[in-house]
Amino acid sequence: MSTTTEEPELQQGPDHEPEPEPEAPEIASSDADPRREEPEDAAIQSGEPESDPSPTGEEAPARPELRKDEGNRTFTMRELLNELKNDDAAESPKNPDGERREVSSPYSQESMQQSNAEQNNAAMELIDSVTGVDEEGRSRQRILTYAARRYASAISRNPGDYDALYNWALVLQESADVVSPDSTSPSKDALLEEACKKYDEATRLCPTLHDAFYNWAIAISDRAKMRGRTKEAEEFWKQATRNYEKAVQLNWNSPQALNNWGLALQELSAIVPAREKQTIVRTAISKFRAAIQLQFDFHRAIYNLGTVLYGLAEDTLRTGGSANAKEISPNELYCQSAIYIAAAHALKPSYSVYSSALRLVRSMLPLPYLKVGYLTAPPVGSPVAPHSDWKRSQFVLNHEGLAQQLNTVDQKQAPQGLSNRSGELAHTDRRATKVNIPDIVSVSPCSDLTLPPGPGLCIDTIHGPVFMVADSWESLDGWLDAIRLVYTIYARGKSDVLAGIITG
What we know:
The chain is of the alpha+beta class. 48% of the residues lie in helices and 9% in strands. It has a seven-stranded antiparallel β-sheet, sandwiched between helices. It has a two-stranded parallel sheet with strand order 1-2. The model is unreliable at 1-26, 32-62, 72-78, 85-109 and 408-424 (pLDDT under 50).
């Protein structure tokens, strides 16, 4: 959600600026869109839990739902138009890396030509019947129709041309966006169904075509959205998640595919029985987190992780909390949700979706800090110390750095405490562990015999490494994400925005 009008490139990198900001009154998560990196916002609500009342008989306090941020498409119209400028585009189109693929097929061309002819005719009938709702749509569709004829011609000459099948599927998917939502001849669903058939055939001919699995999953997701919370929609969402999984297996370095995979799981969790919901939600959390680890400033995945945690907090609160004492409490989940939403807003403060979400969750932060929690740390100046000398104490994180809180005795002995009311960390006692954000080189989990047992955390700085141990692996993930996000916000020159959120 940004303000760039130029269409994005394939599989955007960290510096990508998305399309214009969508309008959104509620906190939401995002929908996948096949052709654009930053499409228009869709008002898809996070799932309602199965159980409403709490065990005490009191209803949980009503909270606004968070709207989802949007997903990403691999292919763009600009790329299609660029391909059509080449005389040999239909015979040997390019893959997302710009390299020509060798077209070959294990199937007999004679046996495939007859079956493909009928499918080609049916697909072209659909394409020919599409008319745009305005002049821009009609102009766009004329280009798409021309492209479809070229790909149909390529397939008639070589039924094993999986590139032509893949590109034709993209054309059908683009055409589905041209027709009005209430169109019946052709319907959006019919165009998407035909696109799915082309993707199916292309991936059968070339099982390593990860970009086809990715866009196929988006087409299936679009079909699922048309069916609400039905059994048919559930099957579509399951199929979409399988295709995203395949796309990630074939191309692990794709934060967009991981983000969309998480979104599909989030949608699926709203349909499945309650006993299956939490497992699916936690899997969605892992996908969003994996996307962020690949691209630390991927604000869509950061925000979507916030929404799914918010939804998990809502579910936990409505069911009266978990019977397992080790499970995270609803209040902690709300706090985690607020951290990610605050970070997304700091990275993209102009996005109204993020702004309205932040207004809802800001009070859930441990102001004037972004994060407060416990870590076990060695004595200051002694990174390699006996395990008995390591002490578990409270740490706080804000826009300036991570610092150790002094206990009551230390505070009496050291009037120059950890922080003032504004949350600044400038006057931290010398005996307290402190890491300034500008000094950070990297943040990573670690395992070393010099550390006490537990999930180790290493913050490498320009002054040397700082080692700590988290209370649990889930706690470690939270600290890793929070510190990385604060550093990323600093590196993008947005620390003042984050400071305004937590101290304003």
